[in-house]
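=== Structural record ===
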Amino acid sequence: MQQHILQIIYLIASVTFIAGLKFLGNPATARKGNLMAAFGMVLAIFGTIFLYTNEAGEHLHNLGFIFGALLVGTVVGWIVAKKVQMTAMPEMVSLFNGMGGACAMLISIIEFKHLSEIDLSAVAAGHLLTIVLGLIIGSVSFAGSIIAWGKLSGNVKDKSLGMQQAINIGLLLVILILSGVMIFGGTPYTIEIFYAVFALSLLYGVLFVLPIGGADMPVVISLLNSFTGVAAACGGFLYDNKVMLVGGILVGSAGTLLTIVMCKAMNRSLVNVLIGNFGGGAKGGDAATASNFEGTIKEVTPSDAAILMKYAKKVIIVPGYGLAVAQAQHIVHDLELLLEAEGIDVKYAIHPVAGRMPGHMNVLLAESNVSYDKLIEMEEVNPEFATTDVVLVVGANDVVNPAAKTDPSSPIYGMPILDVENAANVIVNKRSMKAGYAGIENELFYKPKTSMLFGDAKKALTQLVSEIKALG
């Protein structure tokens, strides 16, 4: 009877995961979707703890350790989630990805250890294959996510080895060959090969992410997220646990689809991502420098920018990572309300990879109660720039760089961008002329229609709002 109830609980939890994912597809329902999926996960966890029994009819042991771990994890997760700044959200997502990958990796190691203590020769190849897949994917996800966390937080720098792609491909082939020998070869060195595959997978995870830099990190975060989901699905196969399998497949498939969408937005191939050396190694090169650009930098004061915006009919705001760093999401919303009170049409142009992870700008602006229908995706907003009086770029750089369309030597060449240069006037708010995350100069800043409003985004926008109010 208990097992039947447990299967019903798993079914309910699986439905909440699917419904939660559906709700996460829209910013207006994302919070509800998150809570719904979290409820399903809690239901599945406690259902397993109290109702699961093995073939001998025994319930789970070590309940003290289980509840102790749950308590510690809940407290740590709660505190970290409450304290994390919006600018640090990508780092936390990478860290959570890494923890998911580590769980899948440890499941494979523990299950292999159990089997090795009995008789590995009696283990079915399919069972061993599931364990090894969980080990490889989980290890790559764990090691890669930790490196991504270090890079996003500025503690790990981009590093590309000579012949990076060849090394990555060679390492991956060695891992696959050793795994094949271990599973199907009947070798007496199964245990030694297992731990060698484990170590090489961790190394591959490090080398896979280490050279990646520039504006490519959101794609990698999404890809690592899909790896974690696939690794969790392997755990579901291993334990014949339906809810774990469904959850893993949902995360893996959603992450994979998002990765493909992000690759399309970046004009990169998924194969290029998988073999590493993606973006970071191409930084610099023969890309244009500031001395190659025609025109000069034209600075604008908050007073002049206020006049330009107050008498505009249509304004589009382009938020970027600089807005997040300055925590300027609330003042930019105040600016929007002020301009709309003047009868001005105001929208936000959202690039798919703006910020440091997919959806970063949407989450940030939602925090300041910006209406979701004001957030316009790139494909939809690009035709509107030609009829826009003023574009205000706040802390964005690479996603408005014309080099993506005009300079084949640029590392971001081919990446679709926001066509802000088509507007009548472009005001760019930046702290300085320092290059963006891709490490390249931006010709947009030298265009005749562009004016630079230097300074911290929060401070500059506060001055801008004050100047507009002073105009009456």
User: Anything to note?
Assistant: DSSP finds 17 helices and six strands in the chain.
